[in-house]
Amino acid sequence: MDNASSVKEFILLGLSENQGLQKIYSVLFLAFYLITVAGNLLIVVTVISSQGLNSPMYFFLCSLSFVDICYSSTTAPKMIAGLLGGSKSISFVGCMAQLFGFHFFGCAEIFLLTAMAYDRYVAICRPLHYAALMSGRTCGLMVLGSWLGAFFHSTLQLLLTICLPFCGPNKINHYFCDVHPLLRLACADTRAVGAAEVVNGGLITLSAFAILVSSYVVILVSLKGQTAAGWHKALSTCGSHITVVILFFGPCTFIYIRPSSNLAEDKAVAVFYSIITPMLNPLIYTLRNQEVKSAMRKLWSRKVGSQNAKVQHHSHVSKRSEKIEHLWL
């Protein structure tokens, strides 16, 4: 920390220094961020408000949507502010907080996706034991374990980075504070720290990905001999989850299981898992899920009905007031 005190703030260079591109990016990513927050918040409200969506799958989906809101909010607002002409500087403490938050929520998403894969495995391969294996207590412990695992991962990433000496250059060639671009600015040999960062991030990513792939291989093998209707039902149940896993784990694996050699490449790939995937998750899960769409329609009908009832009540009260006033006159 004493060594790091010589650098009080960093400058985020962003995605591009071209003014024209910055204006286009600002509009585009502002729209992406608003869709992400609105879409994921809608899923959270729908699952919490609907009694029919009380299965473990929707409990995990609600948790995932909450994580996506927090995950995108660690990077997108600062990036959009910089693109709109705001300050591109970030304090040293703010930079470390952003790094911690990004890895915390990103790792929580990895663990939640793994828990969702296990849920689908039990639902398809062991349906008779589903209620016992996926009880409310078990699901709660799995989500708690996801948060705790993410906390340990992000704390290690933070400690490895914050102990480095930053004594000179302070321009980060990225749109948020991450490990690889910060290693480039350290005034020390960072090969050992870089290797530790890769092992830490890569081990979690590859382990989770191996578990996910194994679970879906087992699911496909278990479907051998099933009817076409059985295949269709299983694939429709797992299709959304597989799509999200590919979109999230593909770019993450590319970034975190190898030493960074090209930051321009890293920035472009990071856009997918930090901004685009959290935006697509609500669309993927709702467009393919009739229960969620039905619950949303009921929620909307209830809201409209409640508003109409309020209008009718106010109209009735107004008419009674007019009658009373007329009698007094």
Structural write-up:
The chain is mostly helical and 329 residues long. It has 2 domains: 3-288, Up-down Bundle (Rhopdopsin 7-helix transmembrane proteins), CATH 1.20.1070; 295-329. It is 77% helix and 3% strand. It has helices at 19-49, 56-73, 76-83, 92-125, 130-133, 136-162, 179-183, 191-222, 228-256, 263-287, 290-328; strands at residues 9-12, 89-91, 171-172. It has a 3-stranded mixed sheet. The longest helix has 39 residues, at 290-328. The protein is globular and about 60 Å long. The chain starts with 8 loop residues before the first strand and ends with a helix. Its main location: membrane. Residues 39-285 form the G-protein coupled receptors family 1 profile domain. Belongs to the G-protein coupled receptor 1 family. GO terms for molecular function: G protein-coupled receptor activity; olfactory receptor activity.
The level 1 CATH classification of the largest domain is: Mainly Alpha
Rg over alpha carbons: 24 Å
Number of helices: 11
What would the average pLDDT be, to the nearest integer? Answer: 82
Report the principal-axis shape. globular
Structural class: mainly alpha
**Low-confidence parts:** none
Order of helices and strands: EHHHEHHHEHHHHH
Beta-strand portion reads under 5%
Beta-strand segment tally: 3
CATH architecture assignment of the largest domain: Up-down Bundle
Q: What's the N-to-C terminus distance?
A: 80 Å
Domain count: the total is: 2
Kindly identify the CATH topology of the largest domain.
Rhopdopsin 7-helix transmembrane proteins
